[in-house]
Amino acid sequence: MREVAIIGVGQNRWGELWGKSIRTVWTEAALEAIDDAGVDHIDAMYVGCMSGGLFVGQEHLGALLADQLGQGPIPGTRVESACASGGLAFRQAYLAVASGAHDIVLASGVEKMTDVDGGAATYALSTAADQEYECYHGITFPGLYAMMARVHMHRFGTTRRQLAQVAVKNHAHGSMNPLAQFPSTVTAEQVEQSVMVADPLRILDCSPITDGAAAVVLVPLDLARRLKKPIVRVAASAHATDAIALHDRQDLAWLASTEKAAELAYGQAKIGPAQLSLVEVHDCFTIAEIMVTEALGLFERGQGGKAAEAGHTALGGKIPVNCSGGLKSKGHPVGATGIAQIREATMQLRGDCGPRQVSKAHWALTQNMGGTGASTVVHIFERG
Amino acid sequence: MREVAIIGVGQNRWGELWGKSIRTVWTEAALEAIDDAGVDHIDAMYVGCMSGGLFVGQEHLGALLADQLGQGPIPGTRVESACASGGLAFRQAYLAVASGAHDIVLASGVEKMTDVDGGAATYALSTAADQEYECYHGITFPGLYAMMARVHMHRFGTTRRQLAQVAVKNHAHGSMNPLAQFPSTVTAEQVEQSVMVADPLRILDCSPITDGAAAVVLVPLDLARRLKKPIVRVAASAHATDAIALHDRQDLAWLASTEKAAELAYGQAKIGPAQLSLVEVHDCFTIAEIMVTEALGLFERGQGGKAAEAGHTALGGKIPVNCSGGLKSKGHPVGATGIAQIREATMQLRGDCGPRQVSKAHWALTQNMGGTGASTVVHIFERG
Questions:
Q1: What is the ipTM of this complex?
Q2: Options 3.40.718.10, 3.20.20.70, 3.40.47.10, 3.40.630.30; which CATH number does A4-117+210-232 get?
Q3: A80 and B95 in contact by Cβ < 8 A?
Q4: Residue A257: which of B61, B73, B132 has the nearest Cβ?
């Protein structure tokens, strides 16, 4: 396989973008990535989107968006893996370049979630879980993650305060990200006193409903060098699955798909977690970030909560997690999230992150997860 | 890129499968393909599905189905391009094998369309067109194809009888396919007297609403040889797009994405249309088959209707089209259709098609199309 590099990134300001259609939201990010790459065309494009059908009544986004970008007749492919759709779209784009099938490929993600009411959005999101065995019986995603949180708290002594510290840290990081949906900072007391959603998870433990898009441009490494672009090399691309329904899992307090994808990715990159300069992870709920940091091997099993409370995951800590603000503060347009993580990793490795820059960043890892962890996509990037 | 071969195929009997869930329908086909391949595991899987969200309230099918197959933690990726989802899933699986990322890959497709009522199914299908500029104004797919048919009839003198002959021929072929949803034969008079849907298209000009799945197994060509399997080599894989909305097309009576994908595919395979032994094409409506045979270069522009009437596209004719019965008779579970086309091509090249076998089949082409032709995936296969 050919070596692959990222040479362009784009993202718009995320939020409730009621004045823009899904195609407009996406095109803003795509054009920015292409401009940033400095290329005059793309050879193919991939778009991650979880449910264009349920959110905006529009499937066939690969063709629609290639057309909208004025790049038809190039191949436009939509990839879906619930909230991991963006990361998985990037992986398919990576394989398209690595295989030699295409040279300049746009990997993108988009979701327009606020055109429907809250009930319809909750239903659409529930289609990421096992409908027949979970959702038809009434549970929604906060409830599923609340059960995971309860097991983690019971088994490892993870505390309510430790959950809150994840939100406090990610909002602090997000306050330095001009594209974040909720750049406001919050205190642990505010998190702990916010509205209860599914015990123990409160509204400030949950990532929001968001409209937004993100895009990056991939090329063969040697083309990136010829174009004299800052080199961000794709050092690993891995994807793994787990039982979709919680009741089929070996362990409710462990994300096996993340552990597996990380194991594969570390093997490809020939590094371990200790070498990472920063990670962007899928903090759809505060408990998710704690569990992900354990499954990635950043901390021992059961120690993720304590590590968050000790500040190890904050900017300046042992391993900065979600310098972008994460899903919690930056927002979570589900199909776009995995691509926005990769944009942040790329910008960090280029040294373009201003006040939220991690000093001397060399290796970055992104972890994007679907459902309650039924699918995980992990990528590792190296500064060239 | 590595050379790739197909070593296993599977499909269940298509129809209104009310007693089975989407996962059951899919698993039947997947297990048959794996059994046919004679492998004891798969390394990754791809599934084409147009709208699991709108039809059955289930997205995240890559993870769900890898789990259902008992093959987790392997990567399971869902790909969508409306009615071309199956063909595009095959293309991503092909790239995964060709790139060297995976060795034994299942490419599959599924759709469960009859669990919703006709209005909801029509709405779900309309999400393949441009919702904002086409469907929100009331038009549905039969109406869009009816406009294309009217232009073709006006410009080239294509007749009502020629449209009917496509249906007559495909039902005749389908009567020899034990897995077809509608294996009954029909006469031109029956087609011409059937219920009007969108003038000039009548119900017997339209492919049906179907539940079904199909699957194939891909491996590197050298592994296929070591396993001593009948060799069906993937000689070309191409994907192209066009304006999604009809009003943005250069020509309403021409399928530019099919022309482009075919041009790329012929170039990769280093053959022209004259060398093909058979083709499977996307006859969602009778007019579509006529237009596709022109865009593939099988007949001159405007001559597709006359060729169908002359019997050139029937078994035993110059170039047999849709020996499987096509979407018209076999059925059209949209995400599965592209894979079922590839199953038929594989079986024809192996000589496994019984009464509908094309003699001395050596090259086969499949053409799978999304919307009114906004996306097309073309594959060419060679008997090894």
A1: 0.97
A2: 3.40.47.10
A3: no
A4: B73
